[in-house]
Amino acid sequence: MRALNILTQVLLIVGGLNWGLVGLANFDLVATLFGDMSPLSRIVYGLVGLSAVYQIIPLVSGKQA
């Protein structure tokens, strides 16, 4: 479980940095690296979203991951 927790945290950091770049510089790093809405970039976006859900569950339930 610890490895999954670290992986989701890394993906959330990547997602947060990407959104920061989009907001501040109008630059989407994921789209630049993998193509605008290519299957690979959609997988990255999906994994970031799933990581957020995974990290929210312990906060809502009051349990630590």
UniProtKB/TrEMBL annotation:
Protein name listed in UniProt: DUF378 domain-containing protein
Membrane-spanning ranges: 6-31, 43-61
Species of origin: Sphingomonas cremea
Top-level taxonomy: Bacteria, Pseudomonadati, Pseudomonadota, Alphaproteobacteria, Sphingomonadales
Pfam family, one: DUF378
UniProt keyword annotations, A-Z: Membrane, Transmembrane, Transmembrane helix
Matching InterPro entries: DUF378
Xref: PANTHER family: MEMBRANE PROTEIN, MEMBRANE PROTEIN-RELATED
Source domain of life: Bacteria
